[in-house]
Design brief:
Structural class: alpha/beta
Distance between the termini: 83 Å
Membrane topology: Multi-pass membrane protein
InterPro entries: AAA+_ATPase, ABC_AA/LPS_Transport, ABC_transp_permease, ABC_transporter-like_ATP-bd, LivM-like, P-loop_NTPase
Helix content: 55-70%
Organism: Alcanivorax nanhaiticus
Strand content: 5-15%
Keywords: ATP-binding, Cell membrane, Membrane, Nucleotide-binding, Transmembrane, Transmembrane helix, Transport
Number of helices: 23
Strand order of the largest sheet: 9-11-12-6-13-14
CATH topology of the largest domain: Rossmann fold
Subcellular location: Cell inner membrane
CATH architecture of the largest domain: 3-Layer(aba) Sandwich
CATH superfamily of the largest domain: P-loop containing nucleotide triphosphate hydrolases
CATH class of the largest domain: Alpha Beta
Shape: elongated
C-alpha cells in the first residue's frame, strides 16, 4: 500500500519554524542571563502567555476583559492551598493542577453565561469581567487563615528546582501556547472570531452561535491563565491577593494595547519588555518609574492607537520586496448533497404567523398580524414607510422580538429562540442596509455562512468553499465569482448586496427574508437578482418574503402581495388585485400628502 505524502501548509510551516526557533531561544537563554534577570523573566514569560489570551479575547474577538488576572490568581491559589493544607508530591501536584483547571473553567463558564447572552452589550460584558477580580479578591480576604487573607500564603512545600529549569518550563509554556494561538487566529475558526468582533448581529443571523463561542473561548483562555498562575505559585513559593487583582488585569490590557491588538506576537513581546523593564526600574527609580511608564503608555496610545506591532510590521513590509502573487487563493465548489429544505414539512406551510403583535411601550408597531407563507411562493410585502414591514422581519427572525402571537417555521414554533436558533429552523435574512464584514474577503464571508453546516477548523485554513447552487448562481450573476480574494470593503454597492444574498442562501434556508434587496442597484443588477429569486421559488421550493418599494420589481416577480398599513394587514391578494385597489392607492396617496405637509 503506497504511503500517503504528508504536506504542510505555509501557515503550519511558519508556525513550526517559529516554534522551533522559540524553543531553541528558551534553551540557550539562561546561559547568557544572570540570576536576577532569569528570576524576573520566569514570572514575565508566564504573564506573557496570559497576555496572549487577552489579545485573542480582546483583539480578535472584541471582548474587552479585565478578568484574566482572576484566572491567573485561581491557578496560583489552587497550588498554594493544596500544597499548604493537604499535601505535596506528584499526585498532589497533579490534583492541584486539575483543581486549577476545573475551577477556572467553571468560573469562566459562569462569567460567560452572565456576560454573553444574546442581546447583551459589550460594555455590560466588560463590567462583568471587571467585577470578577474584585469579587475574587474579596473572597480571598475573607478566607481567614485558610487563604491567608491579605497576607496570602507562603513557605509551602514546592519543587525547588534550579532557575534554569523553571525558565525552561515557563519559556516552553509560552512558546507552545503562543504557537497554538497563532494557528488558531489564522485558521477558519479565527475568521469566525474576527466576524464576531466586526459584526456580531450579522454573525448571529448567519447561524453562528456567538454566545457559545465567546463562552468557550473564555473558558479556554481561563484554563491557560490558570496553568500559568499554578506554575508561578509553584516557582515563587508565594501567593497573594494581588495575583488575582484588578491592577494586574488592567496591566494585561495595557500591555496588549501597547504591543498592538490583534497581532498576537506584539502583546507577547510588549509584556516581556515592559514587565522586565518595570522590575528593573522599580529598583533603580522606586518613586519615578510608574510615572515614566504612564507617560510612555499615554504617548503610544495617542501617537500609535494601534500599538507598536503594526508600526514595525508596516516598516518591514516597506523594506522587503513586494510580491505580486496572492498569498491565499480561494475557490468555490458546489456543495455535495445540498440540504436546502424543499417546500414545507408535511402539510404545514414553511411560514405561519398567528396573532402577532409588537409594542414598544405604548406604541403598537404591529397588531394582530396573521400570515401564511407557502413553499414555491414569492410573497411581496409593501406599504408606506412606518407601516411595520422591517419590524415584521425582525419578529420572524428573532423569537424575542414579538410581544404577543405565535410563529411557526416548518411546523416548529420558534418560541423565544435566538436568531442563530431560528436560522437552524430554516430562516435566512438579509438586511435593509448592507450588513457584512468589511475586513474579510468574499470567500471568507461565504465560509462564515457555512459555519452552521460545515463547521470551521480550529488550527487550519481551507482554500475552498462548498456552496449550494443558488449561492453559486448569485456569485455568477453579480461577478463575485471572480473576486473571491477581494476584501468586502473594496466591493461596489451592487456586489455587496449580491454577496449578502449569496451568504444568506449559503445557510440553505427554506424561508428567505429579503428587506429591499435591490435598493441602490442598477436596472441590470435588479433584473439579475429578480431572475435568481424567481428560480429559487420555482426550482428549489423556497418561500421568499420580500419587502420592496419598487412596485415594478414587485409586480414582475411576486406571486402574492400583502399590504401593511399602520402595523396591520390592510389587504392581500394577487399583484393585479393589489395594484388596482382604490384602497391601496388612497393609503399611498394619503401617506405622500402627510410627508409633503
Amino acid at each position: 500500500m503506497p504511503r500517503k505524502e504528508i504536506t504542510l501548509s505555509r501557515t503550519h510551516r511558519t508556525a513550526l519554524i517559529g516554534c522551533l526557533v522559540g524553543l531553541c531561544t528558551v534553551a540557550i537563554a539562561p546561559l547568557f542571563l544572570d540570576t536576577y534577570f532569569t528570576n524576573i523573566l520566569i514570572r514575565t514569560l508566564l504573564l506573557a502567555a496570559v497576555v496572549m489570551t487577552v489579545d485573542i479575547l480582546w483583539g480578535y474577538t472584541g471582548i474587552l476583559t479585565f478578568g484574566q488576572s482572576a484566572f491567573f490568581g485561581i491557578g496560583a491559589y489552587a497550588c498554594g492551598l493544596v500544597f499548604t493544607h493537604y499535601g505535596f508530591g506528584p499526585g498532589w501536584a497533579l490534583g492541584g493542577l486539575a483543581l486549577a483547571l476545573g475551577s477556572a473553567a467553571v468560573v469562566a463558564a459562569g462569567t460567560g453565561w452572565l456576560a454573553f447572552f444574546h442581546g447583551s452589550s459589550p460594555i455590560y460584558a466588560s463590567i462583568i469581567t471587571l467585577a470578577l477580580p474584585i469579587v475574587l479578591t474579596q473572597v480571598i480576604y475573607s478566607g481567614g487563615s485558610y487563604t491567608g487573607s491579605s497576607s496570602g500564603l507562603s513557605g509551602f512545600p514546592t519543587y525547588f528546582w534550579s532557575l534554569e529549569v523553571w525558565f525552561w518550563i515557563a519559556g516552553c509554556f509560552l512558546v507552545l501556547t503562543t504557537t497554538a494561538g497563532w494557528l488558531l487566529v489564522r485558521s477558519d475558526f479565527g475568521r469566525v472570531l474576527i466576524a464576531i468582533r466586526e459584526n456580531e448581529d450579522r454573525s448571529a443571523y448567519l447561524g453562528i452561535p456567538v454566545s457559545r463561542i465567546k463562552t468557550m473561548l473564555m473558558v479556554a483562555a481561563a484554563m491557560v491563565a490558570s496553568v500559568a498562575g499554578f506554575a508561578y505559585a509553584a516557582f515563587s513559593n508565594v501567593v497573594a491577593p494581588e495575583l488575582a487583582g484588578f491592577q494586574l488585569g488592567t496591566e494585561l490590557l495595557i500591555w496588549t494595547a501597547l504591543g498592538g491588538r490583534a497581532t498576537l506576537l506584539g502583546p507577547v513581546f510588549a509584556a516581556i519588555g515592559i514587565d522586565t523593564m518595570s522590575s528593573w526600574l522599580s529598583g533603580a527609580m522606586p518613586f519615578f518609574w510608574k510615572l515614566l511608564t504612564g507617560i510612555a503608555f499615554v504617548g503610544v496610545i495617542v501617537a500609535l492607537p494601534r500599538g507598536l506591532a503594526p508600526l514595525i510590521s508596516g516598516l518591514w513590509n516597506r523594506l522587503r520586496p513586494q510580491r505580486n502573487a496572492i498569498d491565499f487563493e480561494a475557490s468555490v465548489v458546489k456543495a455535495p448533497g445540498t440540504r436546502m429544505l424543499q417546500g414545507s414539512f408535511g402539510d404545514a406551510p414553511p411560514l405561519r404567523i398567528v396573532g402577532l403583535s409588537r409594542r414598544y411601550g405604548s406604541l403598537e408597531v404591529l397588531r394582530d398580524v396573521n400570515l401564511i407563507g407557502k413553499g414555491t411562493e414569492l410573497l411581496g410585502i409593501i406599504g408606506p414607510n412606518g407601516a411595520g414591514k422591517t419590524t415584521l422581519m425582525r419578529c420572524i427572525s428573532d423569537g424575542k422580538e414579538r410581544t404577543t402571537g405565535t410563529l411557526y417555521i416548518n411546523n416548529v414554533e420558534i418560541a423565544h429562540s435566538s436568531p442563530q436558533q431560528v436560522v437552524g429552523l430554516g430562516v435566512g435574512r438579509s438586511f435593509q442596509n448592507t450588513n457584512l464584514f468589511e475586513t474579510l474577503t468574499v470567500s471568507e464571508c461565504l465560509k462564515l455562512a457555512r459555519y452552521r453546516i460545515d463547521g470551521a477548523s480550529l488550527f487550519s485554513r481551507s482554500d475552498t468553499v462548498a456552496l449550494p447552487q443558488p449561492s453559486l448562481d448569485i456569485l455568477q450573476a453579480t461577478g463575485l465569482d471572480k473576486k473571491l480574494s477581494e476584501e468586502t470593503k473594496n466591493l461596489s454597492h451592487g456586489m455587496k448586496r449580491g454577496l449578502e444574498l449569496a451568504m444568506v442562501l449559503a445557510t440553505e434556508p427554506s424561508v428567505l427574508l429579503l428587506d429591499e434587496p435591490t435598493a441602490g442597484l442598477t436596472r441590470p443588477e435588479r433584473m439579475a437578482i429578480g431572475s435568481v429569486l424567481t428560480k429559487l421559488t420555482r426550482d428549489f421550493g423556497l418561500c421568499i418574503v420580500l419587502i420592496e418599494h419598487d412596485l415594478d420589481f414587485v409586480r414582475a416577480i411576486s406571486d402574492r402581495v400583502v399590504v401593511l398599513h399602520q402595523g396591520a394587514i390592510l389587504m392581500e391578494g394577487t399583484v393585479e388585485e393589489v395594484v388596482a385597489s382604490d384602497l391601496v392607492k388612497a393609503v399611498y396617496a394619503g401617506h405622500k400628502e402627510d410627508e409633503s405637509a
